[in-house]
Design brief:
The protein has no helices and ten strands. With about 120 residues, the chain is an all-beta fold. Strands 2-10-9-4-5-6 form a six-stranded mixed beta sheet, with no helix packed on it. Strands 1-3-8-7 form a four-stranded antiparallel beta sheet, with no helix packed on it. The radius of gyration is 13 Å and the shape is globular.
Length: about 120
């Protein structure tokens, strides 16, 4: 099983980024996917989740109306569109699958929000 995140980087406050997570090694379309983040000195928190078919998503209150999770089951990829980013959202972002009780994680991708 592999989960490979991409699309992170440095962005100014108020800016946007789109993260991608390419999955392999399990039947992607049968499992929910999620994005999490871990800021320096803090625990890992759930940012957003999406159902296997992509019809429904859920979000942390802090990101509602700014972030959008989506997936392309033909490409085995899940996305996180992040708009109006804030400095305190600087963190390493990880994707995760419900496959095998969420045992597998990506390596994480750094997102830095700073002017």
């Amino acid at each position: 099983v592999q989960l490979v995140e991409s699309g992170g980087g440095l962005v100014q406050p108020g800016g946007s980024l789109r993260l991608s997570c390419a999955a392999s090694g399990f039947p992607f379309s049968r499992y929910g996917m999620s994005w999490h983040r871990q800021a320096p000195g803090k625990g890992r928190e759930l940012v957003a989740g999406i159902s296997p078919g992509g019809a429904s998503g859920n979000y942390a209150d802090s990101v509602k109306c700014r972030f959008t999770i989506s997936r392309d089951n033909a490409k085995n990829t899940v996305y996180l569109q992040m708009n109006n980013l804030k400095p305190d959202e600087t963190a390493v972002y990880y994707c995760n699958s419900n496959f095998n009780a969420g045992r597998y994680w990506g390596q994480g991708i750094q997102v830095t929000v700073s002017s």
